[in-house]
Amino acid sequence: MKKWRCTVCNYIHAGESPPEICPVCGADKSKFVEISLEEAMQYEKIKQAKPNATHTVDAKPQPGRFEQTTGSSDTASTSQPKNPSGLKDFIERQLIVHHAHPVTVHVPNGVLPIVVLFMFIAAIFGSTSLGWAAFYFTLVVVISMPVVMYTGYNEWVRKYKGARTSMFMIKIAAAFVVAITSLLVVLWFFINPDVIFAGAARRGSFLILNLIMLVAAGIAGYIGGKLVFKD
After folding, report:
1. What is the reported pTM?
2. What CATH architecture does domain 3-69 belong to?
3. What would the mean pLDDT of 84-103 be, rounded to a whole number?
């Protein structure tokens, strides 16, 4: 049976022909290249031995042309270019090598469930202290989002060649939704802290805004997980 590699995310497919759509990143079949069985076996062996290693594979694979480098998971584009373009290029490559996006994205993904939980408990029990605690947690998310989005954009361009597949477009859109809704939550609560209390005008809209923020973060995290674990 033939083996095919997605040149966007390095997903390996077994079959007589490549899939119409990559199940990991959503790239179409034109992005797949056929590789040898030996290369596919080497690829899987390295992946199992060191899941977070980078596997560099030529666009036209040849037996034995695998190079394992330290860096981000299973991608060809983290290898250093032949002609580095200065300090900016070096920094952006290091951000990928040291997993800057997966690290920074843990801030909003870890904090937002607490934010929404605190907001709802504050609304149910009329707790001012929990409301303000949720406000400060959301402020942390607002501050972290520019870094999350920059490192994510850098990873998208360098690791995944800026592929405009549906998966990447949804992930990017979800990140913008998190950034915008978290900013709106902070501004709204700062201007009117009583919005969470029973009988307050627009309380339902405020809590729905919190839920949208959490769902968007969940969607972005789910797609990110597929790209990392390739399943």
Report:
1. 0.77
2. Single Sheet (2.20)
3. 88
